[in-house]
Amino acid sequence: MHPTSVTSYFRMLSIEDERAPLMDGMTWLMRAHTHLQNDFPPSEVTPLAMEQISSLIGPMEDENKTLCQDAGDLWRAILEIDGPELSSQEIETRQAEVAAGIDWLARIMTWLVEDWLGEEGRNQILMEMAGLRDELYREDSVLRESQREYQLKRAETLARQALGDAN
Length: 167
Fold this sequence. Notes:
Elements: H1 3-37, H2 46-86, H3 89-115, H4 122-166
Helix pairs in contact: 1-2, 1-4, 3-4
């Protein structure tokens, strides 16, 4: 793993550590806001309390968004440098197969809609193909998540190894 990626990886982890208490605080404030919304009958201070809570949540959301973007930028930079080393070849191969299947089904479905003469059986075939396409999209989502998890675990392993080698 490239030394820049190792540094970026540990910076990304520190950003995620910074986000954790921020997310906890936002969750508690949103729960308090919801509790006050459902307060019946509302007390005289309920509107003021809700307004104050809302004024706290907004800046916290902005900070969370900034931290998320920073962590995402670091992760994309890591993948740009070390993506092939971090990725599972088996998952990549399966992703390519799924993508080809989706493309193949799209071409056939387009042909069925545009060029197939007659209505008999076409709608049923289109529905079955749409179901297959949906299954492929679901598998693609699962594969993306699996690849991301694999990459994160691999990055952690390689970054810790690089850190250990440096000491």
